[in-house]
Write a structure and sequence with these properties.
By secondary structure, this protein is mainly α. Among the domains are: 63 residues, no CATH class; 49 residues, no CATH class. It has eight helices and no strands. α2 crosses α4. It is elongated. The model has no long low-confidence stretch (mean pLDDT 86).
Amino acid sequence: MSKKLKLEKHVETQELERRYREVRDPVERSQYQIVWLLSQGRLTREVMETTGYSRGWIQTLARRYNAGGPDTLGDRRHSNPGGADRALLEGAGRAELREALGDDAPDGGLWTGRKVAEWMAGKLERVVGERRGWEYLHALGYTPKMPRPSHEEADPQERAAFPKG
């Protein structure tokens, strides 16, 4: 059976609802929604069904809120200590990657997460996952590109005679 989690009365329920409706950060918004629903006396099961979050995460948020109030809500990933130390490429390395991305990929095709990861692995002399390659590609402002499709029976001469304006 689900239980009602008890929340400290740091702010009124109406204020939690106002903050939930006004905040624009999606992580903070969902956390305010959870705390607001709990402050209304909703069962944990109901909050789980409404928000899609697990019982454990809802309980963790309730404990965090009880300990420090609304200032403890929000995305805390950006303040994790040591994040810069875990970066694979720092300033000079990122600049070198940006320069490499200005040219064609080593195989002559388009840059992909896998190709960036392989490039990084060569520079760092360690294994780099495809996902990390994609993250760096995206962080440098590159978006996925797909070559324009062409019909297999298209006549190259006709296509050359009909260039895009």
